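>> received
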Amino acid sequence: MKNILIPFDFSEVSLNALEYAVKFADQDLNITLSLLHISDGKTKEEEIDKKFKDVLQKYESPLNPGFETYIRQGELSTTIINLQKELKIDLVIMGTKGAELGEEDIATRTSRFVKEADLPVLVIPEKVKTFRLNTIILTVGREKIADRSPLYVLLDVSRKFKAQVHVLTVHKSEVLSGYSEEDESNENTLQYFLEMFYSHHSFSESEDIERGILEYIERHDVDMLAIMPKTHLNNGEASQGRLTNVLTLHTNVPLLVLD
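>> returned
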């Protein structure tokens, strides 16, 4: 993992995401943090460059990663995706204010981007003020993991911080419990891809899968939640990103979306 992109609008949310990203880079001089500002065209680029310089002055140290800044105009998702291809970005780190429980229909800039983008995104809630990465919960559905490539990102993160990955599957009560062929296939896949960082697989029952995941996190000491959206399906069809959207809005820990 060498190139990380941070959408940046100089808000407290984006400043918080930058702080997390610097610690995530963990004094790795091979990593470049690229800050992207979407301009409305009303502010001169010289003024934006000065604001970037003022913000990054705090991080001027030979131990910190390198920084690049970009100013673009246009729609957020399209601009990020184009820059991601141009710079070969490995991960997008993006801050969010989130929303209160019960506000599932709300849409934030971050939740819209996560839903639209087909690339790995690490969402940093505004409430997250400290950095620690020892335990990751990966939530998967009961469908077979068809595309295994997103697991490489999770492996990179786990290996970098020597973090243990606990896998969680939440199912509704009407779904028959028991270990299925899909569960066994997923177990073998996760053990193979995550190597020694794989810990164990837990199964939980809840009428509301989203709340089941969030309640599980509340009961356990978790530093990051990861989700593979394509493994959470409804009768073999994509769930339109509802689960990922809800978790983006409501998580109190960083959320790694493996797309």
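>> The chain is about 35% helix and 25% strand.
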